[in-house]
Amino acid sequence: MLREGRAGRHALLVATTGAGKTLAGFLPTLAELIEAPTEGLHTLYVSPLKALAVDIQRNLVTPIDEMGLSLRVETRTGDTPSDRKARQRVRPPQILLTTPESLSLLLSYPDSFTMFEGLRTIVIDEVHAFATGKRGDLLSLCMARLQRISPGLRRVALSATVADGDGYRAWLAPDGDIDQVAMVQGEPGADPNIAILLPEDRIPWSGHSGRYAAEQVMAEIELHKTSIIFCNTRSLAELIFQDLWKVNTLSLPIGVHHGSLALEARRKVEGAMASGRLRALVATASLDLGVDWGDVDCVIQMGAPKGSSRLLQRIGRANHRLDEASEAILVPGNRFEYLEARAALDAVEAGELDPDLFRPGALDVLAQHVMAMACAAPFEQAALLDEVRSALPYSALTDETFERVLGFIRDGGYSLKAYDRFKRLTQEADGLWRVSHPKFVTQHRLNAGIIVEATMLNVRFKNGRNLGKVEEGFAAQLSPGDTFFFAGLSCEVQKIDTEDLIVRASSKPARIPTYGGSRMPLSTNLADRVRGFLADPTQWARFPDDVREWLEFQAKRSALPRPGQLLVETFPREGRNYMVAYSFEGWNAHQSLGMLITRRMEAEGLKPLGFVANDYALAVYGIEKITDPAALFSPDILEHEFVDWVQQSHLLKRAFREVAVIGGLVERQHPGKRKTGRQVTFSTDLIYDVLRKYEPTHLLLQAAWDDARARMTDVGRLAGLLDRAAETMLHVDLERVTPLAVPVLTLIGREKVSTGSADDHLLIEAEALAAEAMRID
After folding, report:
1. The dihedral of CA 652, 656, 662, 663: what is its sign?
2. What confidence tens digit (pLDDT) does each residue in 308-367 have?
3. Which of 183, 481, 703, 739 is the most exposed place for a label (fewest CB within 10 A)?
4. d(CA 372, CA 435)
């Protein structure tokens, strides 16, 4: 890294967690500042998480102090006090740690040209976490502007898990010129030591959380110095914390950490972890990245990992020493998840990472960036377009699309141009574009940002202590007297205000808050490996007896799909007719497909009653028997039912709300006050209805469609599945349920259930279903 730095070359560093990436990224900066001290801003460090910037400051300031260097290192995020933010623009430190959103705001000020004119290096940490999404789009546009202000700027990116090195090099390079970016590869380090935890009796038929193993997980916590227990969702983190607490007979100190907890609560837990006061921390992806605690000696993953890159990232949180094996334990939730856990282990051993999917830049992000540039200074259209195209996600942007983006910021578009509140930009006689009124500059800076969270309510005690946030949709289901688990406590609702849920601590049994964040889909490479296991009986000797027996019975009773084949089973049960498709395209895609297929069944008189899905299969059930499944899987379902469904569902409205906020059409905040979620939703729904009716080709409707398609429904995987379905389908008509169908069928009825007694009832039902499926006759 020093060599590439001295040569002035851009560089991508890929090295395992604990190899010293951060210091390697900063070393050229420290060397330059020792050899040629400077007072202005020399290096920008951009990270995906606010907490990460704080963590790195700790890890960077210590070596700087030990070397006796008089360098100023500061952080700038949404949590930075406003007086420090103002001072940083006038007298910036030599090294500034920030996030993509805060950098975009800095670039919206006129003094950004003087602040960044001497910038020599930008270091992007954990680049895999955002390069392929909207935050990556924003960051690539910010880098394009920084390169114009300081042409000699050197770009550096760091990551532990990158499958497509060339893709990231192109993303990092000015104008996508891959040859300008050196690839620096770290040593691999010791292979991780990963085990799959097997229950004392049998692997369950259903469930996806590994909750059955609470006592065994607690035993692992007792054996190790410090453990992190990763959960795939915030709800599961709260649930697992409660499960562990019930079996924590030694009363060991354990904590819980996820993105919806209050900042003070997260900092307190992080501090307790850093100082070794906690034996275990139950966490979500909020800790996937970069929070480095050297004393963690075991990582436990509850439920299947969903991808090999994510698993490696999480394993890397253990040990943090290159020459010692990280220890990790996977706790599969059911039999399919056992196969997935085994597939993840094999993928890690083979060094196979999940594919990175780069896509064209989002237009709502571009609109926000163009407005930020206008806030900094008037601009000339051709020059800004040239600058924007130097960012890889926007390299193919056409003149006409850029014209539409400018038109949208100029007056809101054809349907909205009568309203002054949408006239944010004006092109004047000299040809330059300027902000129409100073109020729009204030509005932009208050509302800029890429992360549009679901509308949240604060959870607080009467005395004002803030515990964190829950989604408005979940809060709407609660009444005073109801209890729910949050921040590791049982909270009883006292009253619900517009923005606050006032609670008190309770000892009553409680439910778990649900969050609408999209579930992590099963990665395609793990799905392919699981399919490979099903089709290759020579592998089965590696599996526990009950998993092997399950697959052997399936082969006898029905069939196992070969790679590339779509197995569809139909059978009657208790007066209903079932169809189960084993498509392995992940929960999001299966949820969408279930909606579409039941709509088509309705139209064809098949009287559907419902559907359930997991990552591996989709089960649809109804009154009439399905004799021709192929007709339900035809690709034209995406042209007819999909379009109708998306337009009528909340999906497109929700996507539109996000792009309207990002694109600056609707403000979340006004000076001195913040709109409630309901007000934002009301404003965007109103505009959405007007545009749908009068201007269906509006730029933001197009952006909302792109979002709804890609992110919320995994439509790419869906389209691929439907294209292949006709020629790869193997339809097996049977007299009764099969072993492979049991894990997905046990989900029927589970969605609506939250109490313990119903859980017992479902367990009995699952066992009865399994006994029927595993009968030989």
Report:
1. positive
2. 766 776 666 555 555 666 788 889 888 888 999 899 888 888 777 777 778 889 999 999
3. 481
4. 10
- What's the token pair of residue 345? 């282990």
Stated as kind and residue range, the H or E segment containing 456 is: strand 456-461
CA distance linking residue 185 with residue 643, whole number of Å? 45
- Measure the CA–CA gap between 649 and 641, rounded to whole angstroms: 12
pTM here?
Answer: 0.76
Question: Are the beta carbons of 440 and 355 closer than 8 angstroms?
Answer: no
Interaxial angle between packed helices 587-603 and 641-648, expressed in degrees from 0 to 180 and rounded to the nearest 10: 110
- DSSP state at residue 203: -
Q: Is the pLDDT of residue 62 over 80?
A: yes
Specify the 3-state DSSP secondary structure of 211.
Answer: helix
Q: Which of 532, 527, 487, 530 is nearest to 510 (CA)?
A: 487
Rounded Cα distance, 440 and 444, in Å: 6
The helix/strand/coil state of 440 is: helix
Q: How far apart are CA 575 and CA 631, in angstroms?
A: 23
Distance CA 506, CA 513 (A): 16
The answer for residues whose C-beta is within 8 angstroms of residue 626's C-beta and 6 or more apart is: 570, 577, 579, 601, 606, 620, 632
Q: Provide the 3-class DSSP secondary structure of residue 325.
A: coil
Taken in order 141, 146, 148, 154, is the CA torsion positive or negative?
negative
Contact 393, 140 (CB under 8 A): yes
Three-state DSSP at 573 gives: strand
254 φ, ψ to 5°?
A: -130, 150
Q: Which amino acid is residue 547, in one-letter code?
A: V
The secondary structure of residue 639, as a DSSP letter, is T
CB 507, CB 483: distance < 8 Å: no
More confident call, 757 vs 477: 477
Highest mean pLDDT among 92-106, 704-718, 755-769: 92-106
Token digits of residue 447? 């509302």
Question: Which H helix or E strand runs over 502?
Answer: strand 500-505
- What type of residue is 603? A
Domain with CATH 3.40.50.300 in the chain: 1-185, 193-350
Pairing relationship of beta strands 181-185 and 10-14 according to DSSP bridges: parallel
Say what the alpha-carbon torsion angle 520, 526, 527, 531 is, to the nearest 10 degrees: -160
- Apex 499 CA angle, 443 and 676, nearest 5: 35
CATH number of 1-185: 3.40.50.300
> Amino acid identity of 506?
S
CB 695 within 8 A of CB 704: no
Measured distance CA(431)–CA(97) in Å, rounded:
37
pLDDT in tens, 195-230: 888 876 678 887 667 888 899 999 999 998 889 898
| The two three-digit tokens of residue 649, written as one number | 């569902």
* Pair of tokens at residue 628: 């021709």
| Strand 432-435 versus strand 379-380 pairing type | antiparallel
Distance between CA atoms of 303 and 760, rounded to whole angstroms? 20
Superfamily (CATH) of domain 193-350: P-loop containing nucleotide triphosphate hydrolases (3.40.50.300)
d(CA 243, CA 218): 10
- pLDDT: which is higher, 729 or 673: 729
Count Cβ atoms below 10 Å from residue 713 Cβ, excluding itself.
24
Cβ atoms of 484 and 513 closer than 8 Å: yes
DSSP for residue 261: B
| Greater pLDDT, 362 or 746 | 362
Q: What is the DSSP track for 294-315?
A: TT--EEEEES--S-HHHHHHHH
